[in-house]
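To whoever picks this up:

The nightly regression suite flagged Polymerase/histidinol phosphatase N-terminal domain-containing protein as changed. Nothing in the input moved, so I suspect the structure step. Input below, exactly as stored in the fixture:
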Amino acid sequence: MKRNHTGWYKGDFHCHTVLSDGHERLSNQMAKADLMGLDFYSATEHNLVPATWVETDLLVICGTEITTIYGHANAFGLKKRPDNLDRVCAGDSREAFLDILGQLHAERSVISINHPFLVPWQWSCPDYPLDKVDCLEIINDPTYPNNHEANQKAVRLIDAMWNDGWQICGIGGSDTHALLHEWYTPESGPSIVGDPTTHVYSEGLSQNKILEALRKCHVFVTRYIEVSFCMRENGREVLPGDAMPEPGTFEAVFRFDNVREPIHLFVIRDGVRESLRLEFDFEYRRATASYRVSWSTDAYHWMRFGAEDEKGDCVFYANPVYCCEREHRFDTFGAAVDEIA
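Regenerated output under the current build:
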């Protein structure tokens, strides 16, 4: 345990270094993560589980990016190198890939599907069961040229999953491979650890606590802007991912800092999007908003908040609150994709 207070912790769930196909040394990567104000860092090298790490004040979460021609998935909280990883590395069957994910999920590793629509590394296992998915990467390296539409589609996909009652946690990952001066285009900016930043509400800064918070969806994701908010159900504070079992009044207040260009705040309730009014103070690069609604518990309902820039790219994603359960209409990744086709 590196810190033991309950609160929001900032980190990155998808990064690469010279240990696999990244260009950055571990020590420099940790220095950049520290400069970005991160509290934790996930080691997700391709098909590799590091046995040691450089000295750092950050919490380093043990993981790997299981990398195949059928898709990429992060596994967090590994206790050892997966038994069948050699078969995956050798380009063995699709079944070997699915078997290793099932094994890790059964062992309580957290499984995240990465960049599900980023060609040519998109997820190509349509029959993969959603009850073995803990997280979906809804923002992957936003500086990569092909990720504009791919990330937008990933956000639509997770909305479809929540609309069907699947409580899958939306997270971000920089997927950084580059040095600071290595930009994809002159306009893209650097691909750097911490962009996007995933914020996790945890009872302490330890691997077990962070991963347990992921399972509860106590998470929001940002790009550059700083976001603080408070949500209450009948006066009781609630977090992203919480169930709200009591009918009554839901209230939320938001403050956005470091707002360098117009953003658009919205709420989605049961799949229906509504724009929310933001009060901007561009002198201080700040914006505020509030929201109030009656909350019913007569059936399954869900609600989430988000913000986009002028191009429609996500700059703020808060995992939904919800009530009740519903009978699923679909139970595989491919069927969920069909919902947004």
